[in-house]
Write a structure and sequence with these properties.
- This protein is an alpha+beta fold and 260 residues long.
- 21% of the residues lie in helices and 39% in strands.
- The chain contains six helices and 13 strands.
- A 13-stranded mixed sheet has the order 1-8-9-10-11-12-2-3-4-5-6-7-13, sandwiched between helices.
- β3 and β4 form a beta hairpin.
């Protein structure tokens, strides 16, 4: 019998660890909260916060990770400074990547290979995910939670929302009571957990529509939120590491051109 790889074991342990943080329960017999209003509360909370930081574990299927040249699991740290600053650190095993936006330039850093790429991009954070997706074919991780109106973005991509009940999440400081919101789409269904007291996301799990929650697309375990996080402007400026090599950021059009 073939032994599972260390990566497979680590991934299984992480998924098991994340799952054990959560306990869910169906809606009770009382008044059911309005899921639309709960999403709006989350959106308002994040939009009104000028600077914040959150960390998360992200899990995607192994075949998807291989196709995207990523690890199945990653630790993500995001710092947002409205209206136009972003710093992201992504740790995938031995690989480390960064994404930095200062309002005029977007930089991607490959720490493992000491490469970096940059592209001109002027505007607010709201412009970043759409522009990068359309021109370069990628987005910052968890982009839904950095723009100024997460509610509008989420509603634009789903066909309906529903209230699934409550749940609890174990955190270092104790237990957090959460609302569980179902978001239903043509190709994917998602479940978003929001803290009852603070409206902040605690979990986002997406599965293929029609798979009854079994065919995983994405599982995000939000670990920490800091809405009072303060950093200086230097946190959003890229300083190339010693010996770093700049390589072009290839557009989708360039990548799809037939080779001669």
């Amino acid at each position: 019998m073939q032994k599972p790889s260390l990566l497979a074991i680590a991934t299984a342990l992480l998924v098991s660890s994340c799952a054990s943080r959560y306990t869910s329960s169906p809606p009770d017999d009382g008044a059911t909260p309005n899921p639309d209003a709960l999403l709006q509360s989350m959106s308002t909370r994040l939009a009104s916060t000028k600077q914040y930081r959150f960390t998360a574990h992200r899990t995607i299927p192994a075949d998807q990770a291989k196709a995207q040249n990523q690890d199945p699991t990653a630790h993500v740290e995001v710092v947002v400074a409205r209206p136009d600053k972003l710093a992201v650190k992504i740790s995938e095993g031995k690989a480390n990547r960064e994404m930095i936006f200062d309002g005029s330039t977007f930089v991607v850093v490959d720490g493992a290979n000491n490469f970096y790429s940059k592209a001109p991009l002027r505007g607010s954070l709201d412009k970043v995910p759409v522009h990068l997706a359309q021109v370069y074919g990628f987005q910052p991780p968890l982009a839904e939670f950095i723009i100024s109106d997460p509610y509008r973005d989420l509603k634009h991509r789903v066909t309906g929302v529903s209230y699934l009940g409550k749940g609890t999440v174990r955190e270092s400081g104790g237990v957090v009571q959460c609302h569980r919101i179902g978001m239903h789409g043509t190709h994917a269904d998602a479940e978003l957990w929001l803290g009852v007291a603070d409206s902040l996301p605690r979990r986002l799990k997406a599965t293929k529509t029609g798979s009854a929650g079994r065919d995983l697309l994405l599982d995000v375990d939000f670990l920490t939120w800091d809405l009072n996080h303060k950093v200086g402007a230097s946190a959003f400026r890229h300083q190339p590491a010693s010996g770093a090599t700049e390589i072009p950021m290839v557009t989708l059009d360039e990548a799809n051109k037939p080779r001669r």
